[in-house]
Structure to design on (206 residues):
């Protein structure tokens, strides 16, 4: 795993070792804020708008439970289309979001949204669909007078970290979660052992 560094390599190994197991788990995230000013313009031939129920049901990005979890929290699913065909999706909210991968509540700073679940159809991953989704995100933020979109990315996911940084993303820190049965230890600030959900307030640098 070239480019990960020691911590990233260990994190990747731990995540792989616990993937799919119900009793134990490991996730370590980098928390990144992308400025609206750094997001691309809409590529020619693409459009982005809120998804219809039928479009959501036809997508293969996540299962129905994850979609219900996100829509139940008021997230907006934005669909990218090219020539009328759906090519990708991202999810946005301007409120706190209860994560479904770990027991965390992400609280974005003032002026920021939270984004998750960006996905592009496999056949479109060399196209401009990724740029279209970020352009749609910029428009969504502008409509709400927001300047940043914050997300969490696995610390070993170089394929996602790189594009975020090229848009001028700044790091808000890291957060790690280890689970054993119903217990979770979260290391954001001081380690905290809990059987419930860990609230993670985020802050832009001064």
């Amino acid at each position: 795993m070239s480019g990960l560094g020691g911590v990233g390599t260990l994190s990747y190994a731990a995540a792989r070792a616990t993937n799919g197991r119900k009793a134990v788990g490991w996730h370590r995230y980098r928390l990144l804020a992308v400025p609206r000013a750094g997001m691309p313009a809409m590529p020619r031939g693409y459009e982005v708008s809120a998804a219809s129920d039928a479009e959501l049901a036809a997508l293969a990005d996540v299962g129905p439970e994850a979609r219900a979890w996100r829509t139940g929290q008021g997230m907006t699913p934005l669909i990218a289309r090219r020539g009328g065909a759906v090519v990708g999706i991202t999810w946005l909210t301007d409120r706190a979001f209860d994560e479904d991968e770990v027991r965390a509540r992400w609280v974005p700073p003032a002026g920021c949204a939270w984004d998750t679940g960006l996905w592009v159809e496999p056949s479109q991953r060399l196209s401009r669909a990724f740029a279209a989704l970020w352009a749609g995100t910029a428009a969504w933020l502008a409509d709400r007078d927001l300047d940043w979109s914050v997300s969490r990315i696995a610390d070993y996911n170089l394929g996602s970290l790189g594009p975020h940084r090229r848009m001028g993303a700044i790091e808000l820190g890291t957060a790690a979660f280890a689970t054993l049965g119903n217990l979770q230890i979260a290391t954001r600030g001081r380690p905290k052992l809990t059987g419930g959900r860990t609230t993670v307030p985020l802050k832009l640098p001064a």
In short: The longest strand covers residues 24-35. Helices lie at 5-18, 53-58, 64-72, 129-143, 158-166. DSSP finds five helices and twelve strands in the chain. The chain has one domain: 5-201.
